[in-house]
């Protein structure tokens, strides 16, 4: 099962509102390893091959995020192998990047922030047959990572780190929400995703087709926090890629729960109850 290709509904691209486009572009190119796919005066599209995965856009009058808002906790870049994660670990260490890390049982993950404070996870999945499911929920944890094992994997290869591998995708997105019940209603009854894990009323994880999660959400910034203001840097949008037939069904469900859908040329746009912009793409 490829959890990041249709017919599975999955996150395709993340758009960020940024203050310093040049600084952010350099970070995502040199530190993370994206290629520039297209570039305008106020916008840079980055990705792998011809696939755009992250879009940086300068918005006039934008300021750095000051308070606690709904929006991005982190977006997650999924690498194709343990070896590629090991190479990334060595590369980030050589760059002097401050890192967090965790073994989530389903995956091994590194955590860092970009120069404007947006959270990034870089991870590799263990084989799905090794994931432990019970009552339709998958077991996940926050255990120490085997950093030496990852470095050993990297050193088996004669090829050094050379940017992101061709099979890299956006694995998932994790969001700060203002109300978990409202968010769950929107994502389950509206977007048709299933809850695959929950964390004591503090966080839930949702997915399509039994992935460990395409979307995570939490209230760790506080219940009732406001939406990210239009003129503050941070998450601009993210895309959910799906089959056309599924999008039509989802649109019907969203209208039934009172969600407004804006039809654009390339996507349909909705806002979740916490104000996060979701672009529905086929």
TrEMBL record:
<dbReference type="Pfam" id="PF00903">
    <property type="entry name" value="Glyoxalase"/>
</dbReference>
<protein>
    <submittedName>
        <fullName>Glyoxalase</fullName>
    </submittedName>
</protein>
<dbReference type="InterPro" id="IPR037523">
    <property type="entry name" value="VOC_core"/>
</dbReference>
<dbReference type="InterPro" id="IPR004360">
    <property type="entry name" value="Glyas_Fos-R_dOase_dom"/>
</dbReference>
<feature type="domain" description="VOC">
    <location>
        <begin position="10"/>
        <end position="125"/>
    </location>
</feature>
<feature type="domain" description="VOC">
    <location>
        <begin position="169"/>
        <end position="282"/>
    </location>
</feature>
<dbReference type="InterPro" id="IPR029068">
    <property type="entry name" value="Glyas_Bleomycin-R_OHBP_Dase"/>
</dbReference>
């Amino acid at each position: 099962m490829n959890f990041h290709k249709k017919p599975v509904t999955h996150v395709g691209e993340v758009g960020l509102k940024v203050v310093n486009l040049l600084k952010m572009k350099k970070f995502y190119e040199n530190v993370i390893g994206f290629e520039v796919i297209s570039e305008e005066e106020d916008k840079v599209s980055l990705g792998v091959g011809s696939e755009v995965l992250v879009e940086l856009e300068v918005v006039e009058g934008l300021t750095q995020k000051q308070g606690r808002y709904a929006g991005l906790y982190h977006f997650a870049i999924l690498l194709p192998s343990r070896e590629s994660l090991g190479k990334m670990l060595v590369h980030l260490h050589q760059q002097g990047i401050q890192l967090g890390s965790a073994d989530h049982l389903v995956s091994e993950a590194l955590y860092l922030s970009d120069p404007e404070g947006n959270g990034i996870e870089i991870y590799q999945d263990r084989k799905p047959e090794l994931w432990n499911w019970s009552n339709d929920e998958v077991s996940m944890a926050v255990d120490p990572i085997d950093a030496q094992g990852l470095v050993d994997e990297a050193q088996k290869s004669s090829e050094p780190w050379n940017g992101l591998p061709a099979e890299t995708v956006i694995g998932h997105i994790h969001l700060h929400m203002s109300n978990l019940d409202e968010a769950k209603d929107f994502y389950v009854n509206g977007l048709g995703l299933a809850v695959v894990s929950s964390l004591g009323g503090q966080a839930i994880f949702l997915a399509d087709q039994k992935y460990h999660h395409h979307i995570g959400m939490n209230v760790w910034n506080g219940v009732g926090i406001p939406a990210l203001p239009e003129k503050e840097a941070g998450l601009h949008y993210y895309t959910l890629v799906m089959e056309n037939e599924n999008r039509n069904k989802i649109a019907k469900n969203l209208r039934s729960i009172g969600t407004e859908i804006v039809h654009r040329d390339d996507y349909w746009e909705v806002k979740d109850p916490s104000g996060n912009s979701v672009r529905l793409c086929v």
